[in-house]
Amino acid sequence: MAEEEDSKALIEDSFHHLWNDAQNNTLWKRVKDQPRDLFKRSYKHKKFGDCLSMKATAIVPASMEEVIAQIKGIDHVEEWDPFFKSGTVLESWNENCDIIHSVYSTHVPAVPDRDFVFIECRKMRDDGAYMSVVTSVERSNIPVGSNTIRAKLAPSGFILFPTADAMKTSITYMLQVNIKGSIPVWLKQKLMMEIPQAIDRIGSSIRNKILKGMAVSLQTVIRERQARDSVAMLKKMASKRKFVAEEILQSERNYFKSLNIADTMFRVPLISSQPAIIPPYFQLST
């Protein structure tokens, strides 16, 4: 219970810091020669230690609902974060608050993976902005894996703003992390560059899902049309076959009648008037 109360206080503090830090441009230094608005700063967080902080902003061609579905929880992280390796929801307090354990790969054999235990909470502000904040929490029952270093997240996350166009969303993505352990400078630089690229990948992953959905819908339409054409063709074949069979049967009846053979012999005809193999729902009523 004490852990939960401490975490709730941490959540409110994290929302406050995420919003204020993201909006206060005097804290940030612009990174030059970048296609996106990318900013950085370094500072010592009172709880999480020396943090590398990065912030990027961009507008993506997707609705807020689509972006929220893409960034919420861990289900789709691998679609826009190439460092993400695995994740597990440890606890769910409600539909907007989870405690998560995630492992991130450095993609460098000599550099250990990093894992995080953090709380993720989401809320819609009165001004229409949406916030998703993550902050590291202590959980003694989650041991650090082999060849892994537990890193720390200071208040980080997403702030989404609606735009005049309902199919476009303004995204601010802020990451404040104490990576812990030794890590090459070039890898830190690569991590920093991933922040604006992550926003681009969020937009791309949403677009790909939409295109995939359109392709599936088109394939469904094509299959349904092909099925209708096949049914029409089978009905036509069944109708033609039934007509020919009845014509042959009548010719046989007439021939044997001319020989004065009783018609009762043909109660079970040699050639059935029902088309063989054709399913009943393809047969025409007579």
Question: Please, could you describe this protein's structure?
Answer:
The chain has three helices and ten strands. The chain is 36% helix and 30% strand. The N and C termini lie far apart (77 Å). The protein has helices at 2-23, 64-71, 185-258; strands at 29-30, 37-45, 49-60, 84-94, 97-104, 113-124, 130-136, 148-150, 152-162, 169-178. Helix 2 (64-71) packs across helix 3. By secondary structure, it is an alpha+beta fold. The model is unreliable at 263-286 (pLDDT under 50). Strands 1, 2, 3, 4, 5, 6, 7, 8, 9 and 10 form a ten-stranded mixed sheet that branches.
Q: Can you tell me the overall shape? A: elongated
Strand content: 25-35%
User: Residue ranges: pLDDT <50 for 5 or more in a row?
Assistant: 263-286
Helix content: 25-40%
Which short descriptors sum up this protein?
elongated, 3 helices, ten-stranded mixed β-sheet, 286 residues, alpha+beta, 10 strands, disordered C terminus
Detail the topology: elements first, then pairings.
Layout: H1 2-23, E1 29-30, E2 37-45, E3 49-60, H2 64-71, E4 84-94, E5 97-104, E6 113-124, E7 130-136, E8 148-150, E9 152-162, E10 169-178, H3 185-258
Parallel strand pairs: 6-8
Antiparallel strand pairs: 1-2, 2-3, 3-10, 4-5, 5-6, 6-7, 7-9, 9-10
Helix pairs in contact: 2-3
Briefly summarize what is shown.
With 286 residues, the chain is α+β, with helices and mostly antiparallel strands.
